C-alpha cells in the first residue's frame, strides 16, 4: 500500500503551512507516503539551495526525517521513466512537431506508482492530472490555446491511457477534505472552505465549482 | 535554430522593433505572447529569453512614471539598436552573434531596471515567472513549464494560483465524485 506524491502537491501543502495535515492523515493509513528521488531532487534539494523557499523545504524535510514521507529510489526505474516520458511527449503534435509536455519528476511519480501498484497518485498540477484521468481531453484544450489542429499519435495515447487509467489522481484538496472528515480541523466547515481556497491560490488545479461541491458534501 | 523557428522569431523581432519605434508599447505584451507558441513547439531556451525580453520591455515602457526618466531615451535607442542587430544576425544565420546580442538585450534591461529602481526588484525573473505561467496555461506540465522558463516550481505554483487557468480546466465527468469516493476509501472515512 502506498501513495506517491508529486512535487506540486508537496508545494501546495508547504506554502499553505498544511504539511502537518499529512502527519495526522498518516495515522489513518497503513501504507507509505512516498516521493521519488527525482521529485526530492527537483523539489526539496532545489529549494534548500534557494533563499526564498529554504524554510518550506525544511518543513517537508522534517516529515521525511520523521518517516511520515519516505524517499523512493527511482534510479532502477529510469528506463521505464524515460520510455513513458518519450511516449507521452510524442503523442500530441502541432505543425507536425511533437509537443514535449511532461517532465522527469512527474513521470517518475507515475512510473513508480505503476511499479508499486500504488493506491493513488497525489498531483496538484493540471496537465499531469488530466493525462492520468482522461488524456483525450488535452487535445481540445491544446487546440483552443494554439488555435491550430492538434494531431494525435493514437497508438501512444491508447498505450498511455491503458497504463494510467487505473489511477484516480488526488489533489491536496482531497487530502484536506479527508482530514476535515476525520475531524482534524474540528467541526467548523469554514476552516475547510478557507483551506480549499488557500490551496487553490497556492496553485492546486481546482475550480471554484469543485470547491463548492466539497463544501456541499455532508459532514 | 530550425528554419521555421527562425522565421517566427524574425517576425516577432520585426514586430517588436516596429511597436517600440512607433510607440505602440501596449502591443509588446501580445508580441511576447505570440512568441509562446514558438517556445512550446521548438522548446528553445533562446526563444524563451526573447519572450522574457519583450515582456520586460512592455513593463518598462508601459509604466507611465518612468516614461519621462532621463535615462529612458538612451535606453530605448540602445534597445532598438540591439534588436536591429539581432534581426540582422539571425537573417545572416549568425547564430552565435544572435545569442550574444540577446544576452546583451537582457543585460541592458536588467541594468536599466536597477538604475531607475523599477518597482519590481528583478524584472527579468518576474518576466520568467509570467512566461512560465503562460506555458503552463498552454498545456505544458508544471515541471516542463518551470524548466523552460528557467524558474522553480515553487515560484510558478502560486503565480498560477493567482490566474483563472484552473477555472477553464476541461471537466472530467464525475471527477469530483470519483475523487471523494477514492479518498474516503483510502483513509477509511465513513
Descriptors:
heterodimer, A: 219 residues, alpha/beta, Rossmann fold, 4-stranded parallel sheet, 12 helices, 7 strands, 56% helix, B: 190 residues, mainly alpha, 10 helices, 0% strand
Question: Overview of this structure, please?
Answer:
Chain A is an alpha/beta fold. Chain A has one domain: 3-Layer(aba) Sandwich (Rossmann fold). Chain A has a four-stranded parallel beta sheet. A three-stranded antiparallel beta sheet of chain A has the order 5-4-7. In chain A, helix 2 packs across helix 10. The model of chain A has no long low-confidence stretch (mean pLDDT 94). Chain B is mostly helical and 190 residues long. The longest helix of chain B is centred in the middle third of the chain and has 21 residues. The radius of gyration of chain B is 20 Å and the shape is elongated. Chain B has one domain. Chain B is built from ten helices and no strands. Chains A and B meet through helix 1, helix 3, helix 6, helix 7 and helix 8 of A and helix 2, helix 8, helix 9 and helix 10 of B.
Outline of this structure?
The complex is a heterodimer of chains A (219) and B (190). Chain A is α/β, with parallel strands linked by helices and 219 residues long.
